[in-house]
Design brief:
- The complex is a heterodimer of chains A (119) and B (107).
- Chain A is mostly beta strands.
- Chain A contains no helices and eleven strands.
- Chain A starts with a strand and ends with a strand.
- Classes of the chains: A mainly beta (119), B mainly beta (107).
């Protein structure tokens, strides 16, 4: 069974940091590009970051550029999102997702982990 | 970024009804358009990819059509399990962007 399991969410003060993790199973992780997508009541579904299977292409949305960093460890079948300088508007459910064939064709979603930024 | 305008934002329908949702892109995206279903407290789930292709395991009552800037999504005969929120999403380039969603509720 193909599974993505996120962890690392929580409550953090503005300006703080969090590291999200996503453990993948049931497929050949290194062969797929992966993403973080977030969802909030105010902004809806929002693309956060993408990383290619071989680590040679990385994209971050303008809204997180310079603050968030996507990375992966193919030996551990794991995806990460390092989030620094967090803002109230980063509050959302963060989903780990898998692309099929093309960047953006998301065919598998994790259950999500909640990040709350509040003082 | 490409903007996706989805309508209506909500609709009320009965079991057995035919339901259609539209999605308009702010520029030509070819057929790089997905449709997702989301139920409360759950992650979205892929239903249709590349505008009209049914994801494996998805019932055939779900269909998609369109190309360029105008797309539509239809449920031919609404079933009790279909009451949910539906989203369109382009993937013509990065970043992919989503519509604001259509919430389908029971009449």
């Amino acid at each position: 069974e193909v599974r993505l399991v996120e962890s690392g969410g929580g409550l953090v003060k503005p300006g703080g940091s969090l590291r999200l993790s996503c453990e993948a199973s049931g497929f050949s992780f290194k062969n797929y590009s992966m993403n973080w997508v977030r969802q909030s009541p105010t902004k809806g579904l929002e693309w956060v970051a993408t990383i290619s299977g071989s680590n040679n292409y990385i994209y971050h949305a303008d809204s997180v550029e310079g603050r968030f960093t996507i990375s992966r460890d193919n030996a551990k079948n794991s995806l990460y999102l390092q989030m620094n300088s967090l803002r109230v508007e980063d509050t959302a459910v963060y989903y780990c997702t898998r692309d099929r064939v093309s960047y953006g064709l998301v065919d598998v979603w994790g259950k999500g982990t909640t990040v709350t930024v509040s003082s | 970024d490409i903007q996706m305008t989805q309508s209506p934002s909500s609709l009320s329908a009965s079991v057995g009804d035919r339901v259609t949702i539209t999605c308009q892109a702010s520029q030509d995206i070819g057929n790089f358009l997905n449709w997702y279903q989301q139920k409360p407290g759950k992650a979205p789930s892929l239903l249709i990819y590349r505008a009209s292709n049914l994801q494996a395991g998805v019932p055939s009552r779900f269909t998609g059509s369109g190309s360029g800037t105008d797309f539509s999504f239809t449920i031919s005969s609404l079933q009790p399990d279909d009451f949910a929120t539906y989203y369109c999403q382009h993937y013509d380039d990065l970043p992919p962007t989503f519509g604001r969603g259509t919430k389908v509720t029971i009449k």
